[in-house]
Amino acid sequence: MTEAGCPYCSKKTDDICENVCGGASRAALSMSRRLRCALRCFDLKALLLLFVGIPILVFVIYVHGQKFTYFLRPLWESPPKPFRTIPHYYHENASMEHLCKLHGWGVRETPRRVFDAVLFNNELDILQVRWNELSPFVSEFILLESNSTFTALKKPLLFASNRRRFKFVESRLTYGTVGGRFVKGENPFVEESYQRVALDQLIRIAGISDDDLLIMSDVDEIPSGHTINLLRWCDEIPEKLHLQLRNYLYSFEFHLDDDSWRASVHRYRAGKTRYAHFRQSDDLLADSGWHCSFCFRHISEFTFKMRAYSHVDRIRFAYYLNPKRIQDVICRGADLFDMFPEEYTFQKIIAKLGPIPSSYSALNLPGYLIQNADRYRYLLPGNCKRESG
Ligand SMILES: *[C@@H]1O[C@H](CO)[C@@H](O)[C@H](O)[C@H]1NC(C)=O
Ligand SMILES: *[C@@H]1O[C@H](CO)[C@@H](O)[C@H](O)[C@H]1NC(C)=O
């Protein structure tokens, strides 16, 4: 038995080392010789690591670089200042006077007027759910659509061609369109803010005046009707109030968390109030509705939204847009872009790793969805299969 046996050390190094260097006469082998043998095996392992392992690692980082930066987010970004969360009370039988009082507010003689303004992309079904939920409490609906997505792709005026579906708000609708600027290679957030400025003008055209309530939210951020009713009836509510919404993904089966806060309600001030989708105050009213992201009926709407959306850089591979993959991701409650959770602490990132577990509760959902369950089955638990095309 000589050291010449050692060069065979390869992947299964330990076993082979044992066999080659140890073998039958293992007991007889001196400690030093064994050590030398092991070192040689170690060298080979190190070389393998250098010439195979490191290139693989570089490749993996290259392919998943964006994922890595997301995972390491807690190192380079600290969490935003926490909100002052206002407890939210509601019971269908409680009087408005009593409810306002529970929040520390007085009740008004007459309710404020409410304006609901949205930038529309392609969320027809969710718009139907939203406007039905809010209809009893809203004085004027405002909708703006553009022939350009935020990512400068041409898009049809989908609301205009489906306007018949929304007859029930026609007498209260201020509808406007804005032409896209189609600047190639521009940051999508620029087109987005351009469209929000156009929406500000449309809101004025709709006839808003001081102290009317203005809801600023994306179409898929739906305040619950009773929340808006409370805010229009109570005095002394904050000038700017964010709404905490339950986050759902793909349908009301996948309840991600309760951390959506971008939607807000404003007591309008002419010349001051600007339509925005970022943080504008520290006040957050708890449990005020639903945010259903990527809640689409057709697979084609998923691919459209993935390409139209401000985070288009997340489509790192063409196969992300493959309809079979998208259907599979929806049914698993996994991430369309294969990303890590967007959180600020490792604890939260790790807690949210992997698919969202299914929820089988369909309690406390928008009323219209339950009344029309047959038409919106894909939004309810247990129905993840989407229509193709
Ligand atoms: C609601 O109020 C009515 C009349 O005051 C009462 O009969 C009913 O039991 C109440 N319902 C609930 C759920 O408290
Ligand atoms: C978008 O709309 C504007 C204004 O209506 C129009 O001038 C422009 O030609 C449209 N662009 C495309 C690509 O449809």
Automatic annotation (TrEMBL):
Any GO CC annotation of this UniProt entry: membrane
UniProt keyword terms in alphabetical order: Membrane, Transmembrane, Transmembrane helix
An example Gene Ontology biological process: N-acetylglucosamine metabolic process
TM segment ranges: 42-63
GO molecular function, one term: beta-1,4-mannosylglycoprotein 4-beta-N-acetylglucosaminyltransferase activity
Keyword Transmembrane among UniProt keywords: yes
InterPro entries: Glyco_trans_17
The keyword Transmembrane helix appears for this protein: yes
PANTHER family: BETA-1,4-MANNOSYL-GLYCOPROTEIN 4-BETA-N-ACETYLGLUCOSAMINYLTRANSFERASE, BETA-1,4-MANNOSYL-GLYCOPROTEIN BETA-1,4-N-ACETYLGLUCOSAMINYL-TRANSFERASE
Protein name: Beta-1,4-mannosyl-glycoprotein 4-beta-N-acetylglucosaminyltransferase
Organism: Musa balbisiana
Source taxonomy: Eukaryota, Viridiplantae, Streptophyta, Embryophyta, Tracheophyta
